[in-house]
Structures are given as structure tokens and as C-alpha cells.
Design a protein that fits this description.
Blueprint: H1 2-24, E1 28-30, H2 33-39, H3 49-55, H4 70-73, E2 81-87, H5 92-107, E3 111-117, H6 122-128, E4 135-140, E5 145-150, H7 155-163
Parallel strand pairs: 2-3
Antiparallel strand pairs: 1-5, 2-4, 4-5
Length: 172
């Protein structure tokens, strides 16, 4: 009888862990407003491309933890938002996430999607604490990370992430 209860207990724990895992898969987690405010230059309510230009050489010495540049991403940033997808070669959900984010970027003006291989960008993996693939970082127009998604992402989740951007994103 004890073994039956033990097996039932293990099954119950496995079900709960599976449901929690599934509920967190692809969920968008915004960066707290206090962190975004700290990323903004003095006198600005939020980070901007103009503020980044004013800071200029002051930040070229070392990369900021909350901002990605065109050089780090290897492609131009979107005028409104950029999805930076960190994927691996053997990741099955990465392929589906890539297709979803590419379609969303194609449908929305000023939104771009960049797919980076984690094996070739270990500095970004360490910097952003990537523990699984795909991990998607959502950047604003100035390259500030405003949120992230981890795990397989569907269209609904990607659109919700874009809606959380401060300026909103209109379809083309």
C-alpha cells in the first residue's frame, strides 16, 4: 500500500511540475519600470535613441547589461522593436518560434527579428542568463531590453509582447 501511495505522490508532483512548466512556456516577462527608468539618461522618462546618441563614447568602453547594439546583434534594430531570438541548432521549438517571430515582424512596421545561435554568442548567453532555448529578448528602438520570453512562443504571446511596448506597434 505504501508503494502505491508513493507512486501516486510522484505522479501528482510530476503533473504539477508539467503544468507549471507549460504555463511558463513562451510567457512574456516585462522588465520592471524601475529598471527601465534606471536605463534612461538623466532627465528622460524612458530610454531613447536620442539619449543613446548623447551618451556616445561614455558607454562604448563596456557594454551595458540592459542594452544591445547593432554590432552585438549583427543586424539593424527595428525602428519600434526588435525580437532577438537566442536559439540552438538542435532546438525543435526554436524553428517554430523563428517562423512565428518572422511573420509578426513582417506584419508590423518598424519591427525586426534577429535569430542568433547561442554557440556563437556565448557572451550574450552569459550576460542575459539564458538557461534554455529559445529565449527571446524584446528590445525597444534604442536597443534597451524591455522584456523576454523563454520557451516556445506562439503568435498570441508575441503580439502580447509587442502590445506591452510603450509606444505600441501597428500592423502594416
Amino acid at each position: 500500500m505504501e508503494r502505491v501511495l508513493l507512486v501516486l505522490g510522484v505522479l501528482a508532483v510530476a503533473v504539477v511540475v508539467g503544468l507549471v512548466w507549460r504555463s511558463r512556456n513562451g510567457r512574456f516577462t516585462p522588465v520592471p519600470p524601475s529598471v527601465l527608468a534606471a536605463a534612461a539618461p538623466a532627465g528622460e522618462a524612458e530610454p531613447s535613441a536620442a539619449g543613446a546618441a548623447r551618451r556616445g563614447a561614455a558607454e562604448t568602453d563596456g557594454a551595458r547589461d540592459d542594452r544591445l547594439t547593432t554590432a552585438e546583434v549583427g543586424a539593424p534594430l527595428g525602428a519600434v522593436a526588435t525580437f532577438v531570438q537566442l536559439s540552438s541548432e538542435v532546438c525543435t521549438p526554436c524553428r517554430r518560434t523563428h517562423a512565428v517571430l518572422t511573420a509578426v515582424a513582417d506584419e508590423h512596421e518598424g519591427v525586426s527579428h534577429v535569430d542568433l545561435d547561442v554557440a556563437q554568442h556565448l557572451d550574450l548567453v552569459r550576460r542575459f542568463g539564458v538557461m534554455r532555448t529559445p529565449t527571446v529578448l524584446l528590445l525597444d528602438a534604442s536597443g534597451v531590453v524591455v522584456g523576454r520570453m523563454s520557451g516556445a512562443t506562439d503568435r498570441r504571446q508575441a503580439l502580447a509582447a509587442l502590445d506591452s511596448c510603450r509606444h505600441g506597434v501597428a500592423p502594416r
